[in-house]
């Protein structure tokens, strides 16, 4: 129970009152006028800047406490300051996806009556990593502490770190083998884990006894608590300067201002209307060890999105028509979906001014019940929700970009984020100790192209705008593998006038261990889970794993013979196969296999982004540079882009402009010769649709979408002029 | 108030501005007069006279063509009423075999053509590749964008379209 409530209302009633005021007035907490901002705009802005500085400073301090290379090197952490009701006022940089998921966590505790039991008191520490309460996945462990000022609850400070090991059925953080909640790892469900600013010893013991690598989790807890206390004390100092009444009012005006700014930005940058797009995700586990036969082993998910921008500036995203949740690790909760929306908005529209929860309040998500976006069963696993979240919000970025192009802001158009498959590992470390870890170099994939330039190479992921792959030497300290290669993957960006950003591939020699379990997650190898835009092509699908067991690399090294440091550019025979002896395996992800041991070789490719614009408009000179530097192959330059390259005196590629013009004219002619009117294609394809002449996974996808969505069914029927129900769900009632 | 010349916006849209200058434009407050200036840039680019009302892709524009509003390619080809899906009036080339997918992905692993195909939507007059869809076989062609053209001009630009 609050010692001295901020108002006559108790916290739960205050939260309900705040929501009622929002419903009634359309403004956050019923704030219809920004009176403090109007009185003294400079003071208003300065105060918010201070709050933001508190957050950034606290996060940087905390990263130095962490032992995790994910937090220290890659920056997998975010902190924020909240109102007593749990709405974000200000936040740091980092994994901003969690600013709003923490908001859900705080509100959940308030609504569940935590004031009475376990009570909310000064010095308490609460933690959570349950996605149905408020996070994305088990490794995203969040801590919040209440901020009291002279006995009154005046806000919350919160922090999230992405844990590298969570004690699930497979080692690491993104537990690919989890098919239900019970195999995802250690859950902390809105639990009071500390009092009087101290983490409870029994909680630490539970972590130490249930994790493969507790040092990461436990020191991250200390880092988070330190950052929360740091922010709390800063806020208290600020209140002593500006007064409690001013704080209680201004902290809410900040959020209402953020909401209004988001609406204004939408009206400034976009065009009202309805935007549509889709992407897919292919999930393949057939024959892989460890998967329980709880459902079909292979799934194809469609992710259609309809975005509406109304003339008042509100953005609504509707996932109607997508697939049901499943017995796999890729389901998502509404909290995760909110988080995806929030972090995407911060990158494209909400990147200036008072960045806070107000932006989220100016949007709406429609998440159909029973789908992967909003499961109607809280036992489902969400261990790798990013597998579907990233493709989905990549679509959102393309839809927003269409609106930026229509409004003339071409420099803001961006083909979007992509999945970046992760490696999880565990077993015996190079020091002979048990260990577990997620390798986070995945946080530096290629980005989609922009409408005015190529995408970013090895420098972007959707969940953290501060993408970083980390230093090789630091990763090598943490795992029993040493790098023998890390290089750009040629052609890994989608082709286009502007190509997508390229990804990279790493190759490791497994070292000083007799038992290394390697697993990977977020793989879509059968289908593109990204897209191009305005004529650009999608980036390639996830690449297969190439590994060598019992390699002869030490013998080769002793002889000074050439090794292989990357898979190479022949999709049929890798450079490993050409140069290294041993038992070669090529595995379609996810990689779930017997443990590796010292002397084995393993490689893993990350994903690039989609392309923008017609390939025949790509700059030949830039392309020659790309070929010279390994971003494109000569084959791609010639075959995909119609660019003729010749060698200069030193053997470097240079564009033959005249020959290119000629070749492109021929390609364009051939393009027209190969194409047919869409009406003819539809007429021919209709027969295939009527017979449902598709792979079993495709048929299952249609049957599921039809079952869940009358709109999808109607659109399908209208387009093909068929009865989808009788084709895909014979016997079902219409 | 931030504002840029038509020449700068032309170079920006053409990807010709030096990166430092582009970066400054990206980071600066947005220019509220952008829309009509950018429309003027596009109008200079096309050889036809129909007034452009809205760019909808890299080389596609909604324009006023007599009494009707149509989606038109930069080359002048009309895809018909802007409220209808222009893709249905385009030419299409579908890549649904390993061989045809390999032409675009010469050095990478490929998707399974039983699960996924690439559809290229091409202007039947000039051969420009306007859009690429990656979709499961049988998936309806998506109608990318239905702008609220009248609401946009009336409520956001303050210049209602004639005849509305």
Automatic annotation (TrEMBL), chain A:
One of its GO terms (biological process) is glutathione metabolic process. GO terms for molecular function: 5-oxoprolinase (ATP-hydrolyzing) activity. InterPro entries: Hydantoinase_B (IPR003692), Oxoprolinase-like (IPR045079). Residues 40-614 form the Hydantoinase B/oxoprolinase domain. It comes from the Bacteria. GO terms for cellular component: cytosol. PANTHER family: 5-OXOPROLINASE RELATED, HYPOTHETICAL 5-OXOPROLINASE (EUROFUNG)-RELATED. This is 5-oxoprolinase. It comes from Mesorhizobium helmanticense.
Automatic annotation (TrEMBL), chain B:
It holds the Pfam family Acetone_carb_G. It comes from the Bacteria. This is Acetone carboxylase subunit gamma.
